[in-house]
Design a protein that fits this description.
CATH superfamily of the largest domain: NAD(P)-binding Rossmann-like Domain
Largest sheet: 7 strands, parallel
Strand order of the largest sheet: 8-7-6-9-10-11-12
Low-confidence stretches: none
CATH topology of the largest domain: Rossmann fold
Number of strands: 12
Radius of gyration: 21 Å
Shape: elongated
Mean pLDDT: 97
């Protein structure tokens, strides 16, 4: 019997390629264009992507032999799930591989925000001694509101607790009992907004969460709130957030993801009270190696008709 053919259209570590190659013929094209993808996708039984490749309805329509799409990461908003279902294509992801990396980056941004670390560093590099200008705050005693208490939200809560932070959270998909076992006090959105000194987002992007942090939500928050998003661009109305920063309703924000990526030097990115990083929360050697192994194993399991750990559709 001929081997399956698998296309890897985004960059993944070599260990994932090795696993796929044990049972399939693998073509590694991490910079393939959208147009070229449409031309070649009919040759493949499986497609492995990260966040760069958009697996659109047109891709599924052209993919006459496609059986599974594997996402090396958590979010699947770059994959048209409705089209996957209609063409009977399985979609899998790797929801736990990058948990530690994203949680650690979230804490790094949190500490950077409240201690003005980027401004202090920039001052030193420009020859300025800003000791009198940069009065920070302590995490200890603060209230952290986590929206989305899944794998990553729970990991953030666990790490924040070590700093003496009180953690409250909202997640309609997690029961109160489970939330408490994860070290998080359940709260309704309006309670979370009113009580939190810092709010961190850890939810997927979908029609119900797009622009969930809009002008109305920001107005309900405690004045001087800090916002952190390492989840997905599009969860925050960026224009509304910029207005909140200018008005002082928000004291600062740390963003790793944007509605459009790369965003360019927007007014929000350039704001002095914003820490902006280029979608690197999951970018650790360890996390990417785990994601590559997990997606390779899951894609091969799908091709073999075996049970799946992380099937989306």
């Amino acid at each position: 019997m001929s081997k399956w053919k698998i296309l890897v259209s985004d960059k993944i570590p070599e260990n994932g390629i090795r696993i796929l190659s044990t049972a399939a013929e693998v073509e590694y094209k991490p910079s393939v264009s959208a147009e070229d993808l449409l031309d070649i996708i009919s040759d493949f039984d499986a497609l492995v992507v990260r966040s760069r490749t958009r697996v659109t309805a047109d891709v599924f329509a052209a993919a006459s032999n496609l059986k599974v799409v594997g996402r090396a990461g958590v979010g699947v908003d770059n994959i048209d799930l409705a089209s996957a279902q209609s063409y009977n294509v399985t979609v899998v992801n790797t929801p736990s591989a990058t948990t530690i990396a994203v949680a650690e980056h979230t804490l790094a941004l949190m500490l950077g925000l409240i201690r003005s670390a980027p401004q202090a560093d920039a001052g030193m590099k420009s020859g300025r001694w800003l000791k009198k200008h940069l009065m920070g705050s302590e995490l200890s005693g603060k209230v952290l509101g986590i929206i989305g208490v899944g794998h990553i939200g729970a990991a953030v809560a666990q790490r924040a607790a070590a700093f003496g932070v009180r953690v409250i959270g909202y997640d309609p998909n997690v029961s109160d009992d489970v939330m408490r076992r994860r070290g998080v006090e359940p709260a309704a959105p309006e309670e979370l907004y009113a009580q939190s000194d810092i709010i961190s987002l850890h939810v997927p992007l979908n029609p119900s969460t797009r622009n969930m942090i809009d002008g109305q939500a920001l107005a309900q928050m405690k004045r001087g709130v800090y916002l952190i998003c390492t989840a997905r661009g599009g969860l925050i109305d960026e224009t509304a957030l910029h207005f909140a920063l200018v008005s002082g309703q928000a004291a600062g924000a740390a963003l790793d993801v944007y509605a459009q990526e790369p965003p360019g030097l927007t007014a929000l990115v350039a704001h002095p009270h914003v820490i902006a990083t280029p979608h690197i929360a999951a970018q650790t050697k360890e996390a990417q190696a785990r994601a590559a192994a997990d997606v390779a194993e899951e894609v091969l399991a799908a091709l073999r008709g075996e049970s799946l750990r992380w099937k989306i559709v």
